[in-house]
Write a structure and sequence with these properties.
The complex is a heterodimer of chains A (204) and B (237). By secondary structure, chain A is mainly α. Chain A contains 11 helices and no strands. Chain B folds into 3 domains: 57 residues, no CATH class; 34 residues; 85 residues, no CATH class. The chains are: A mainly alpha (204), B mainly alpha (237).
Chain lengths: 204, 237
């Protein structure tokens, strides 16, 4: 699904989105479904990177599209629709995470969990009785948890760079900042993440 | 960039490298540097162990995030009607747009000043509001005696507010025939000599500064000059 959607995104003709938007604004609201299909995969990837949970990511993606639909009248065509949309998406995801952070403390693994994981991961003959898949899942889980403990502003940088694979320039465009800010922010975010995952050194 | 002179080897271990190349490590890792800057970073990395360690940290974080797996997106259906029909209830977009346009036209300080003036005006109105007199509808805790003295407040000045509270106290207190004796059930307050009753009433009701004068002489009682209070004497039955 992701690859299909990305191919659809890459294969689009220049200006096709803008033509679609013009028709939607003229009253053909049903055409928004095309934009929805085209942009959903990337929006979901951003949402999942920011929330770490499928249900919340689905919610966030839906909210982003709803917002884009309601505000499509404010798209003036000064930038491409993709730029406008992703900027809206990033802003919304940041607000969403800040709101969530206020309501519930960041997901932090309990000490018991960490001790358990460490025990399993450092066991001498761990591979003997735990399948490779399980270990990999634990690794993924730990990375996910560590990412979620970062501040939303740092998390969004890592998500855009490492998960979506954008260039500094694209990230700067979406966050409305300079590439220098992106570089220094990414450096800080990575160092923080590396410190949180210290115990995984040698396993990755 | 000149190196800061360090006082000890432990500080040298803790302080990060002060070279400008250190700021380019992330960009170097992400392949965002041009050839010249890249060569500069590479030669610096070969010479500086602290930057090498930091670069390894960045690479480690980057590798760790490659283990972050995004599950396949399963988009729910998107069905919408006419956007104009789906506007949220309440303010229409056009109204909101006009509001924002207004907001942009008037600078924030002007808006704040107008709001402040409105609040002050409302406050002044509230303080100077007319006080309603309570003549007939005074709450009586005992059956209304044929009062000999009626206190009517004249709401002109601000002090009236204080006096109104005083009048309320008069009627809310249990009637005492003599000081220290409550009116018992079945006993009519009108059985008590009016002069004594009025004296008791006034003593209990008036402020402490006027208490002495009220007790001394009933007929000669006059309120303090700064209080807009008028005492109407009704003819004795």
């Amino acid at each position: 699904m992701l690859t299909q959607a990305l191919e659809a995104l890459d294969g689009e003709e220049a200006g096709e989105d803008e033509r679609l938007v013009a028709r939607i604004r003229a009253g053909e609201a049903a055409l928004f479904a095309q934009l929805y299909r085209r942009y959903y995969a990337r929006t979901f990837a951003l949402a999942f990177g920011m929330t770490g949970r499928r249900e919340q990511a689905d919610d966030m993606a839906q909210e982003i599209f709803l917002r884009a639909y309601q505000q499509i009248g404010s798209y003036k065509g000064r930038s491409t629709f993709a730029t406008w949309f992703y900027r809206l998406a990033v802003n919304h995801s940041l607000n969403y995470c800040r709101r969530e952070r206020r309501h519930q403390s960041a997901v932090v693994m309990s000490d018991a969990d960490e001790a358990h994981n460490l025990e399993i991961n450092s066991g001498v003959g761990a591979e003997d009785y735990i399948s490779e898949t399980l270990l990999r899942q634990q690794l993924q889980e730990q990375v996910r948890q560590a990412l979620l403990t970062l501040k939303p502003e740092m998390r969004v940088l890592l998500v855009l760079k490492e998960i979506e694979g954008l260039s500094y320039e694209e990230i700067a465009e979406r966050l409305s900042c300079s590439t220098g800010t992106v570089a220094s922010g990414l450096s800080r975010a990575r160092q923080l993440l590396a410190r949180k995952l210290e115990k995984l050194k040698g396993k990755i | 960039m000149p190196r800061r002179k360090l006082s000890g080897w432990w500080r040298a271990r803790q302080l990060p490298c002060l070279s400008a190349h250190r700021g380019h490590l992330a960009a170097y890792l992400d392949g965002e540097l041009n050839a010249g800057a890249r060569a500069g970073v590479e030669s610096h990395l070969a010479a500086c162990p602290r930057c090498r360690a930091e670069y390894e940290q960045l690479r480690f974080a980057s590798r760790a995030l490659s283990h972050f797996v995004v599950p396949d997106a399963r988009p729910a259906g998107w069905q919408v009607g006419d956007p104009r029909a789906e506007q949220p209830q309440g303010l229409s977009t056009a109204t909101l747009r006009r509001f924002w346009a207004l907001k942009l036209t008037f600078p924030a300080p002007v808006v704040a000043a107008v709001a402040l003036a409105a609040i002050i005006f409302a406050g002044v109105l509230f303080v100077n509001r007319p006080v309603q007199t309570q003549t007939s509808a005074a709450p009586m805790s005992v059956e209304a005696p044929a009062t000999q003295i009626k206190v009517i407040e004249v709401p002109v000045e601000r002090e009236v507010v204080r006096e109104r509270v005083v009048t309320r106290t008069i009627y809310a207190r249990p009637f005492r025939a003599t000081p220290g004796r409550h009116v018992t059930a079945g006993e009519s307050p009108s059985a008590i000599p009016p002069a004594q009753r009025a004296a008791t009433d006034l003593r209990r009701a008036t402020n402490s500064d006027r208490e002495a004068s009220a007790r001394a002489s009933l007929t000669g009682f006059r309120p303090a000059a700064d209080v807009n209070l008028r005492i109407v004497k009704e003819p004795e039955q």
